[in-house]
Prior knowledge:
Helix content is 39%, strand content 13%.
Amino acid sequence: MSETTSLYDAYQGNTYLFGGNAPYVEEMYENYLENPGSVPDNWREYFDALQHVPATDGSDARDVPHLPVVNAFAERAKQGQTKVVVASADSELGRKRTAVQQLIAAYRNVGVRWADLDPLKRTERENIPELELPFYGFTDADQETVFNTSNTFFGKDTMPLRELMNALKETYCGTIGAEYMYTTDHVQKRWWQQKLEGIRTKPSFNNDQKKHILDRLTAAEGLERFLHTKYVGQKRFSLEGGESFIASMDALIQEAGAKGVQEIVIGMAHRGRLNVLVNSLGKLPADLFAEFDHTAPEDLPSGDVKYHQGFSSDVNTPGGPVHLSLAFNPSHLEIVNPVVEGSVRARMDRRGDPQGKQVLPVLVHGDAAFAGQGVIMETLALAETRGYHTGGTVHIVINNQIGFTTSDPRDSRSTLYCTDVVKMIESPVLHVNGDDPEAVVLATQLALEFRMEFQKDVVVDIICFRKLGHNEQDTPSLTQPLMYKKIAAHPGTRKLYADKLATQGLGETLGDDMFKAFRAAMEAGKHTVDPVLTNFKGKYAVDWSPYLGKKWTDAGDTAIPMSEWKRLAERVTTIPESVTPHQLVKKVYDDRAAMGRGEINVDWGMGETMAYASLVASGYPVRLSGEDCGRGTFTHRHSVIHDQKREKFDEGTYTPLQNIAENQAPFVVIDSILSEEAVLGFEYGYASNDPNTLVIWEAQFGDFANGAQVVIDQFIASGEVKWGRVNGLTLMLPHGYEGQGPEHSSARLERFMQLSADTNMQVVQPTTASQIFHVLRRQMVRNLRKPLIIMTPKSLLRNKDATSPISEFTEGGFRTVIAESKELKADKVKRVIACSGKVYYDLAKKREEKGADDTVILRVEQLYPFPHKAFATELKKYPNVTDIVWCQDEPQNQGAWFFVQHYIHENMADGQKLGYSGRAASASPAVGYSHLHQEQQKALVEGAFGKLKGFVLSK
């Protein structure tokens, strides 16, 4: 007996069909007869196979009566057998018929592991017994035996075993290897089987299409060679070895346009980016050369390297013009992914396209980054959620099989394929050999068709190689001698394909002629994409000109009339009788109704709510997302009311802000997944494409924003000075020292202050309900679009001292500095305490206790841009001041101290001194011991009124 036969015997001996499982099997089969889709896939396939086993009477009937089936299962369970009890003459044939179905399933599941995917052919085919006929007990004598294949899409209900094996190998073991069987959706599985088996995964292009593919390969290789010889040694992150990617992009753009897509947003890192700019988006080569020659305009404060630049264009397709956008991207690989998704969602919302039929996200990855970067998983986790769904993303992996730092593939990842992470959302993957450009184009077409049909993510993994180093100054053979010996001997994908077309009679000189023509176009600096539409402007294009060149000091009328206040207040506090709120929520809404009538002062939650209400009533959409932000981490918002009598989880909610007026703008509040990096990146992307929507991301605690630090550093803080990208995203970061420990106290104000320069963003710390109202409205009413960072409070949400009368909402605006509210004799004032945030209320209380009427307390509500004029105006009111103290909750090396001291010093009069009162420098944001927190808080408040100590700055 052969080894593989023994394996099959072992398989039989471990089957799930042993006697103890008989009742379970009986019940499963009863369910199957009633509804085949109600049982797991492996059981359904097994029961499907049973329908082809001849009955004991020799009939071909598929529908077996229940009682005989039950008896048959019981009998076989008693006998410990693994095959259906049939007449002895047919038992072996029945076993083989079942084995054929198992063989088909094996190729669908693991045939990819025998696929011809590596252009360098570095490894031998692995041993997979399940793909060999002997594993199932077949011999050469069975090759011509005809079996039922009606559950396949090979076009025949029956096939000889030999023909079936050929069909399976052609379909699943060629230059495309498909992974899709792990999906739980039977319809999607059958879709892939039909698409792949129906054509045996073989491309079928006419001569013109083949020539076009060669043209794209020529463009890809031609650009790289031109740059390599013209700009020797300059970094460009060459695509050589992966030229089929350009053919893939071309097919994707053209096919998407034919299917009704009108916008494509692309995110990708360095590798091949310049090639995409020129050969996919139609950037003029002359403009690219100017960047190499340093003759391109340099009109940004900072600018960025050429392989980080974005670009947009309009190209013609069979379905009409398609707008292409390549997102700007920093060197942090993959961080652009959620930014692209957010930009796509904004475009979908603007078009009223909830399924993403008109807008397509395309993300291009490197193999190492796709497997290694956590933002990949976070972004995938957003894909099927309501607030972040974009209709499915087409992922393309430029898999050069080397990554960056790993010289040994055993160190590259812990998964079989670099794409395995997408299995978490059951996305199908098509692995394809980059040396077969026709297969690459076919895989791309299938991927797009799947995305458009099912609105799900899909992956095309182009397995290729990297001809040069990580960059053009690198010597990869230092660590990859074996791989680069093979690469050195490789003629190139374009050459291989040109030779192939020559043998098919398309012309011996076709490849050379195309290359010469492309070289001439390069020399002339002409377009390589035809046609690029130079004067086309789409219906949904955003005009950013009103938001450019604005100053943060520009005025904005943020107060609203009293009549409007009362009208909106009534709408946001009205709960339909059909909705039964929780008693605690009802109390909140009853109090808010009283606030709206002016019976009591307005608290933070009501002030914030009224800001949103007034904006959506004026035509400004509001999008608020974050962890638990519908309710609010500290249960202050309650923007969504949950009916306590609802009977279904997906029913029984009411959002008052969505019911302000008949023609109001949308109000969207999203409880996000437990992610900071991907969600914040998504919201940045959304805001980057919609200046008319107030887009807010709220951290659960401000401390957790550091999980998204890359987005803050590379996009929010520097996107405008690097790329000229204006963005009005708002961040709400709960911040305040209340004894909750190191991870629940600080939004790391100092980090935002450190990042503040070039008037790049606004950093505020409002302390009253009217202040949050005005600053939120100011973000939209003014035409200034700069990121707004709000240090939002925790204890102040319910502090009566932080409430505001209605008059502060119907008059005035956001105060960058809040003047002294107590009536003091100006000439008697000797000290000014400047502060920001909730510490003000501690200081005010201490001043009352001490009777220190010679001390003024100023609240700096906007820390950046620093309000010099307003601050100086307040200081000048008190001519006899000798001491100025900056007081803060945060440790001395954190908070705003190191950044505001020179601002304050600039506004001081001669002879005045500036001191500090706050916690001592600390490696941790806050202490975890409650008693120590209280001691520190008491000391810093006392110190603000005491003698100047430590570092004192004089003028």
